[in-house]
Amino acid sequence: MHPRRSDSNYRLYDEEAVEAIEMVKRYKKMNCPLYEIKDIIDMLQSKKLSNKSLEMHVDHIAQLMQNLEKEIKDMQQLMDHMNREQRTIIREKLSKQSANLVRALLAIYY
């Protein structure tokens, strides 16, 4: 990624670079190693999907989903010991993200 420079020496990123930066941030939040992030970005930018790269990416997503499922089960157990107000706060905070996740998962299958 080689951004252009403005007259005042600020870096100017094109839309593709900004999307790549956002993707790196997302994957780092999910504890994905940088070498995997690089492979994913390279794969998406080249528009060439090697079977190995694709399989590695799908395996990583499957692992993330498995970890998320465990965390949700832990949260459900915690919620059993919370009062109504605490449960409402959690549900409100997670409802939009949950809906987005469900839509993304459904898009894979349909």
TrEMBL record:
A GO molecular-function annotation: DNA binding
Pfam families tied to this protein: MerR_1
An individual GO BP term: regulation of DNA-templated transcription
Stored PROSITE patterns: HTH_MERR_2 (PS50937)
InterPro entries listed in its UniProt record: DNA-bd_dom_put_sf, MerR-type_HTH_dom
The protein's name: Uncharacterized protein
Organism ancestry: Bacteria, Bacillati, Bacillota, Bacilli, Bacillales
